[in-house]
Amino acid sequence: MNSTTNTSATENHIAFHETIVIGAGVSGICAAIKLSKAKVDYIVLEKANEVGGVWRENVYPDCACDVPSALYSYSFALNPNWDRVFASQSEIKAYTHDTVNRFGVTAHIHFNRQLTKCEWLETEKCWQLETNNGVYRARFVIMACGPMHIPLIPHIKGIETFKGKSFHSATWDPAYDLSGKRVAVIGSGGSAIQFLPAIQRQTAQITLFQRTPPWVLPKVDTKISDRWRTIFKRFPFTQSLFRKLLFFQFEFLNHNLKNKWFSQRLETAAVKHIARGVKDEALRKKLKPDYSLGCKRILLSNNWYKALGKDNVDVFPGITEIQGNKLIASDGASCEVDVIIYGTGFEVSDPPIGKLIYGRNGRSLSDQWAGSPTAYLGTMAEDCPNLFMTLGPNLYTYTSAFVIIEAQVKYILSAITKARKKNIATISVDGEKSAKLNKNLQSALQGTVWNSGCASYFIDKTGRNSVNWPWTTMKMQRRLSKINLKEFQIERHS
After folding, report:
1. Where are the domains of the chain?
2. Which of 124, 179, 232, 368 is the most exposed place for a label (fewest CB within 10 A)?
């Protein structure tokens, strides 16, 4: 079957496409561009009314990327107009819109289509996708939903008794005025270190509840001059070279975090960073982590510690209970607040999309994973023929998400094009080969800083690391350069 049409698959006029992509964020846009280039019949189903994914959803103050913008972009769509070394949320969102228009894929995106169920139909050898606005079928499905998808609100005793305003950083209401408010910030991760300093001046009081302090390094951020933007426009190879240098810097970091001497040097720099921002000795002790740098996500900020040292900011240990507008910390300290802002991240180790996918065995992928997701090369799950994921289990490493996504999309495209050429109906994960690969992967993770003992979202509820890739990003790129059909169970069209 080398071509398909957009005609109905059944008498019920269920739209059929060779490939359907779920999500028009960074992953979905990349897949759309590459599918168009390969002349594959496809559509993208997007739940919102515009593209952008996580960069559309997150609008909290000072939201920005912690990977330099020259690397946090597609290698095939470099942007010479970045305003800063680390791009802001609005710039990245604009970049996704510009890229969609530049490559002419807008017509393939169907907006306001929220996926409610994705079910494998064994007889028809295709997936049926139910949405809030129609039913679709496809031979291949690319789940480009990303892990930073559903905000995580922690289970706190008495949370329902709180009478004030509360929201997650990913559902920020720009119209809500925090001026003069007593604010509790729950969590000290990647979003909190950006929005807390941004709101500190306008609030009456901020109380930060943190279970464990993060390692925070200075952010070498600066405005990109007009001169450099002109150079990038006139000589695109200069920006490509800059991108490669940044890539190898991250590879150097990945490799050397295993080196005790190197990690201790970074820790020393991070401790000095605390001392520069915080003069109070007792507060410095609260802010110094007691685990190895890199065990949790490394954060970057130039104003986090300065903000925590202000008179209207208190730092408490983790929250244990809410009694009306009174919040109680694990050490018994308490405060009265008007607003709670949750900077508690997302469901990473238990991807919500798994609840919507029903594979060949009739079980949801979430039930199959049981809180500890696995996939073959982070891209294909067992009992889910012809279904691909982007940024799936065990692919995270210290690099740009764009680098990982481009590698995966290349792999996915090679699978689809080979299936077309070789009359293949289904490509399925071989359980034995997948188990062997993931066993080797987990073994390699044992010697890494990610598995060195701290509590992080890298470690799932079973105690297994279901997030990190233990080797170099270059090895990941090589492994995902093209699909090897001998590693899979193949079923051909009769």
Report:
1. 15-150+347-492, 159-215+258-342
2. 179
Task: Summarize pLDDT for 195-236 with one digit per residue, the tens.
Answer: 999 999 999 999 999 999 999 999 999 999 999 999 999 999
Torsion of CA 390, 19, 421, 9, to 10 degrees: 150
Question: 159-215+258-342, superfamily in CATH?
Answer: FAD/NAD(P)-binding domain (3.50.50.60)
**Contact (Cβ atoms closer than 8 angstroms) between residue 202 and residue 209:** no
- Note the CATH number of domain 15-150+347-492: 3.50.50.60
Please state the pTM of the whole predicted model: 0.94
Computed over its alpha carbons, how large is the radius of gyration of the chain? 23
